[in-house]
Structures are given as structure tokens and as C-alpha cells.
Amino acid sequence: MRAGLAAVWLAAAVVACEHTAPFAPGVYPPGGPFGTGTPLRLTYNPGTDLAPTGLRGGGGGGGGVGILYTAERGDREDLDHCFAILPPSGGTISRYACRTTAADDSVDVFDGGSVADGRIAYVRLRSRRLPGRPITPDVQALVVAPLSDPNAVRVLRPVPYSLPSRPPHQGISHVGWLTPSRLIYLAERVTYPRACSSCAPDTVRTGIEIVTLDFAAATPVLTIVPNTDGASSVAVGGGATGDTIYFTRNGDSRVYRYVFSSSAMDTVHDFAAAGIARDVGLSGGRLVAVVGGDVTYLVDSVLGASQVDRGGELHFVTLATGADVVIGNVLSSFRRPAFSSDGMRVVTEVWTSGSSDLWLLDVP
């Protein structure tokens, strides 16, 4: 999985020079965002922008503070998905990394990056662009690498894989760091249904269970987190020990908490009146989640459970009081919210007409 070419961090001008809408009139500092206040649109990429995460200072290897996300190269024929880094409040992309520096005969994807201690854990996929090829990736793996060179990878877990007495794990998402050598993620079932015989296939990712991966030794060790069947998202709780996680379940309105040291599990919030909860995130005793919206949960007698998610409302909860506030436009389709580096804002995908841009919102 080690690439033949080292990653090249390109200047921001190389990226996203095309824009889907004119900028609003105003005076903006050089390299700053195309607007002020919030909600603020951060990206104008002709491709799709996904899975944002807040970067905190001291990342090493050029980590710094900002927003890291996966950007589709809409300006390249191969449509690679690369990592990009924005300043905390938006503006010109400061760093950019792809598997290759130019378009080639494959689609290479860097997905779901999670950064800690100058390293990035992420899912890396590759598919050859040939007629008649299957829509599933040719190569897929969970990897870890220096943030300064995401191509200098250590492969932790090729995907798909199977564990004894468990359903096959065909995808990985919601990667997080518990300790410097221990990750957590959501294992998924991935299907490609077609709405009709001539329709293009869709990609449906349905959570199966939550997994920890300890890579302190030469051979990484996988462990299923107990009682997390049907999980749909997972996030690491506050604190330096990585002892607590929060998660949601397919078709469920509740957010759960699990403590590793005590094996205790409880419910921390129920969005019963608003609908199905997913994409949970935590910062300093505050919780953000996508709730309700365009989400469907089905159970097939043969295939099992499936949750199709096209976005929903963005809810902000103060755990100490249980106060629940809807933020952002309730008509928007939000997905994968993440707290900014200072914990005072949320950066999130907003889906429109099958494509996603990133927006920044204040939290109460």
C-alpha cells in the first residue's frame, strides 16, 4: 500500500479555483473566506467535499490548527479524493495531498481522516478506471501515516475482512483515536442498489458494529466493542484517556455512552421527537448530531438491516442540562458534523443535488 510517489502538498491556488456561485460583495482579507459571520460556506469546489474534522495545535509535521477534509478533484479526469486543509475560519486551502500529482488510470480516495500527535489514520481506496470494472474498490485498507506525508503509510487492516462469528466488514468510517496506538471505528456493510435496471448504482453504507484496533505490536489486534450491534456512528468522548465513546444505532433516536474501564453503557440523550440520530460528535461536554431528515431504516429478511441516509437536521445538546437546540437551516441536509479546533463552531457537509460543500456554523 506504500505509494510510489511521495505526497506533494500543493499551493492553495491549485485547488478549487472554479466556483459554483459568484462571491458576495464585500472587503475580504487576502486568503480569507468569501464571507463573514456564520453560517458561512467554506468550499466552492466543483467536486464533492466530505468528512471534515477539526485540527488542533501541536499536530506536528505541519499539523497546526484548521479543518481537514476529503476533497474530490473535480478539476481532474480521474476525480481522485485528496486531503485538504483550510484555516479554522475558512479561506484559502493551505495544504493539499493526493496519492498522485496528476490524473492517472485509477480513482484514488483518501477518506475519513482522523489526526492525532502528528499522524493521520484514514481509509485508503483505489479503483482502476476501466470499462466494465466492478464498482467496488480494487484495494481498500485502514492505514496510518505522518500527517506531513499521508502516502508514507503503515497498513493496519485491509478491507473487506471477516472475524469469527461476525458478518463481513466491507467498509470503515468514523475513525477516531483512543490512545497513540489504539483506534476506534465503525465497521460497515456496503451495498450498491439500483433504483431501476438502467439506473446508476447508489452506495449505501450501513453500520454493523464498533471495533477497536490496537497497533502497538507488529500485528494489529481487532476487538468488537460489546453491545454495539447496529451502530451507525461513533465518537471519542472528552478527556485524554480515550476511555469513553459515544455512539448511535441504525433506526434509533438515542445517543449511547460506553466506558471501557467499567464496561458500563447508558443513554445520554434521546431525540425521540425529532427522529433517527446519527453522526454524533463531542467537545467539552457538548454533543452534536444529525437527526431526522431524509433517512430510511429498513430490515430485509435476507440482507438484514439497512439505513439509507441523505442528511438531516443539525442538533446541539449540552449534556449537563440536556438542552437541545437545532442549529442551521432546518431545510438543509447536514451530514458528518465536526467541532472546530476551538470547540465553538461546527463544520459540516451540506448536501444539495447529489453533491456536498462544507459550511461553518456557530454553536450556542
Can you describe what's shown?
The structure is a single chain. Helices cover about 0% and strands about 50% of the residues. The protein has strands at about 40, 50-55, 65-70, 80-85, 95, 105-115, 120-130, 140-145, 155-160, 170-180, 180-190, 205-215, 220-225, 230-235, 245-250, 255-260, 265-270, 275-285, 285-290, 295-300, 305-310, 315-320, 325, 335-340, 345-350, 355-360. Strand 4 (about 80-85) and strand 5 (about 95) form a beta hairpin. It is globular. The N and C termini lie far apart (about 45 Å). Mean pLDDT is about 85; it is low at about 1-25 and about 60-65.
Topology record:
Blueprint lengths: L39 E2 L7 E7 L10 E7 L8 E6 L8 E3 L8 E11 L2 E10 L10 E8 L7 E5 L12 E9 L2 E10 L12 E11 L6 E4 L6 E6 L7 E6 L4 E6 L4 E7 L6 E7 L2 E6 L3 E6 L3 E6 L3 E6 L4 E5 L5 E7 L5 E8 L2 E8 L2
Antiparallel strand pairs: 1-26, 2-3, 3-4, 4-5, 6-7, 7-8, 8-9, 10-11, 11-12, 12-13, 14-15, 15-16, 16-17, 18-19, 19-22, 20-21, 22-23, 24-25, 25-26
Compact description:
By secondary structure, the chain is an all-beta fold.
- Write down the domain tally: 1
Mind telling me the C-alpha Rg? 19 Å
Oligomeric state of the chains present here: single chain
Distance between the termini: 43 Å
Model regions low in confidence, pLDDT < 50 over at least 5 residues: 1-25, 58-63
Helical segment tally? Answer: 0
Structural class by sheet pairing and helices:
mainly beta
The strand order across the widest sheet is 1-26-25-24
State the major sheet. Answer: 4 strands, antiparallel
Question: What portion of the residues fall into strands of 2 or more residues?
Answer: over 45%
CATH topology heading = Neuraminidase
Globally, the shape reads: globular
Helix content: under 10%
If classified by CATH, what would the architecture be? 6 Propeller
The helix/strand order is EEEEEEEEEEEEEEEEEEEEEEEEEE
CATH superfamily membership: TolB, C-terminal domain
Output mean pLDDT.
86
- CATH class call: Mainly Beta
